[in-house]
Design a protein that fits this description.
667 residues, six-stranded antiparallel beta sheet, alpha+beta
Amino acid sequence: MALFLKALVAMVVAWAGCALPAAAQTHVTEALVWPSPSTAWMPPQALDAAALDAADRAVLDAATPWQPVALPHARPRARWGGLGQSLRVDVPEVLWYRMQLPAEALDGMAEGVRLYLPRWQTVGTLGVYVGGRLAWQSGGGDGDRLWNGFNHPVWIDLGGLARPGGPAQVHVRMASLPGVGGMLSSLWAGPAQELLPSWRWRTFWQTSLVSYWRAGFLMLSLFALALWFKYRRSRRDEVRLFLLFFVMSACQSVAALLFLVDDEGLDVDFAWFSWLTLVALLAALVCMFHFLCRVQGQHWPRLGRALPLYLGVVAVLTLPTWWSAYLALVPLLRLLLAPAVLALLVAVAVGAWRLRSRSSLMLAVWAAMVPPIGLHDMAMQSYRFDVEGVYLSPYVSVGLFMLFLVIVFTRYSRAQDLAARAHATLAERLAAQERELLQAHERLRLAEREQTLLHERQRLMREMHDGVGSSLISALRLVEEAPADTVDVAQMLRECIDDLKLSIDSLEPVHADLLALLAALRFRLGPRLEGAGLALRWQVSDLPPLPWLDAQSALHVLRILQEVLTNIVKHSGADDIAVGTMEAARNGMPGVQVWVRDNGRPFIPPVPEALPPGRRGLGNVRSRARALGAHCDWQPAPARGTEFTLWLPLYKQRENADTLQPTISTL
């Protein structure tokens, strides 16, 4: 695994442009070192007798015993036991480096020459001198000596510091806490346009990409927090996953600040800052454990309660107030993350074994990479690995970020599938209901048709029985009982035939046209009236349609007018009949009016209660008018005779024709 990670780091560094081609650039890989007995933390402002203290003045002495070393050069940390015994925070260990830049490295000073240092690291300060002058120094000092931006590449402009066309000497002074060691990478010198891509790529991989990644991760966590806040009451258990993701992302963002803060530092004591990043990282691991357990549907109640308790104990025991040499113990305290990492690995491995799905397998592979990545970064921090490599811990959350996206995408896809299936189900149900409605409508239409036919049969049977049948029975009785010379059999038969024809005419569709119905009446009764010596004058005008004028209502209208005309022929002695129509309103209701006027004897109908037992014709007229919602009346004509009016509404208020079954008799 270590070889794999080393190859991975080498591949990343090479792809990032950190391995420069041989051109006008100079790669410095050798140096001379000399340990100074100086006790000053801050580097002097120049390499001269006035600025150097007594201990550091030997840097200028030709007799100083410099020792050759290869760059990158690392001084390993002391063993943890010896470190605790010999640690003296107020006295630094000072190490001087001396390197030579050849003349060709400083060619093109007019275009700009740069000195590029990929990485340096220690608990202390660093000063870089070119030509005896201080070219760059780290932040920090006697207080927070770790605010040195160890993860930020050093970029120094050599303009005015070195003589063009000649060699230049570079000194580096590193002051470190005793026992913590230190590391200095190799150096690059050359034209700015050639070194700039490497410096930018190094900066991108070590700090910029981490910043961008953490910003995107944090924005996604804010989205998760918004989801939790929106659904925290209705779907409490399900959205708790989003809250865990937010807390985990926030903690990891705080922990990643260790790799992002430059040498300017923060307005916080570095010891407390280091404690905060440690606790945040441990809290992120605890949240990660609960997050993955929920994702995989696992239940570890005891371990789930023990990890937060362990987090609280570590947070209290690692407070900087308890340790006088806290800064030197920071790498050792990182070992306290091991129990949480182990619990996380166990949970992921068990979940992958139980589920055996592609996502759980990918999660297990990601979790299996966490310990090697942690060991890789600890080895780099202890200067036992490729010190010019890239710290991989900030990228651990990449797998978790992708996992969260997979979870969100899976749930979104599942919701879309459920919505699609629900839509398909609803469409099928709607189609089935439409088919059922069509079938029900067809059955209802057939039932209505059968009922209509039945009603028509019953109505025709009733009309045939009460109309034609009654007329025939009356004619038969007159023939049987009365003398033959007093009975006009032909007339009676003609009346029976007229009744039959009127019943048949009522079946003809008139399309709500009252005038067409009256024309049929004139066609049937006109010859009979003319044969009786009556002149029929027709004075009709256009009328609006009557939507309610169906076969039943048409027969009622024909029977009423037939009854009125028959009474005029038999009882009035008139020789002139006029029939007319007009639009008329009654009690504010729109309607039409049919009037019949004769010149015979005036007729005033009795009230319904005073009708003689044998005079049922007037009662039938009134009953049929009520069935139509109409009104009938007899009044004396202006000159001579009687005027009958039948007012019909334009629209019926209610249907009451089916509730009335009048008995018709021929007078």
